[in-house]
Amino acid sequence: MRRLFPVTDQTPARSQDGADREWSLDELADAYAYPALAADGHWLRANMVSTLDGAAQHDGRSQPISGETDMRIFGTLRALADVVVVGAETVRQEGYRPARAREAFAARRAAAGQGPAPAIAVITASMDLDFSLPLFTSPLVPTLVVTGAAAPAGRVAEAEAAGAEVVVAGDGVSVDAARAVRELAGRGLRRQLTEGGPRLLGQFVAADVLDELCLTISPTLTAGGAQRIAGGPSVTVPHRLAPACVLEEAGFLFTSYRRI
């Protein structure tokens, strides 16, 4: 069963033509299209997956709680973005590789004035990254390393020697989440997507710069002590989002909530 429930119309529809079939990439891209942005605007969305009991990972990785359609949406969200923002710990744990150009989205990206693939921006204070990985040495679009002004100079030099662009978004060692969003937008990377991990998402939530959450609810239970989708200190007042749409397939719920 595949259903789309737009929040403005509670009548469910399996697909645009009413057929019970796999949603096309174009249909998914339309459902998850970024809103129109002002000339100086930017939009930060997060894409995360959670089990029914709130776990964002199993055995330290998100893949075991994901599924085929979740990965199609994952790829679609990447294909719509100017930049994919990710924490260093997630790069290490998930084995991140450069984003690739996808023919299915080439015309859509060209019409939006985008390059062939999104850049990857890695948020790191320690610069504890393996700069010999393909993410840094052979991306289609140069990888950005976002760090603080007091980051280890030797590691900064290694990143630049590997071909990465170092972006300073903090006066000390740590990265200021709001400044990171602004620095990336200032480079023309205005359609932003963060894939976590939970610590990084928590920083964006705390800084009140998250505009949209795309959350896959996996029909699984794991128990244990796995992280939630967002970590770190709690906010003073909970942030309220408005539902945009819900896609359902094989028990998975693919939800989108936007800033009010």
Automatic annotation (TrEMBL):
Signal peptide: none annotated. Residues 43-236 form the Bacterial bifunctional deaminase-reductase C-terminal domain. It holds the Pfam family RibD_C. Gene3D superfamilies: Dihydrofolate Reductase, subunit A (3.40.430.10). Keywords: NADP, Oxidoreductase. The keyword Oxidoreductase applies. It comes from the Bacteria. Pathway: Cofactor biosynthesis; riboflavin biosynthesis. Coiled coil: none annotated. InterPro entries: DHFR-like_dom_sf, RibDG_C, Riboflavin_Biosynth_HTPR. Residues 1-20 are annotated as: Disordered. This is Pyrimidine reductase family protein. It comes from Streptomyces yangpuensis.
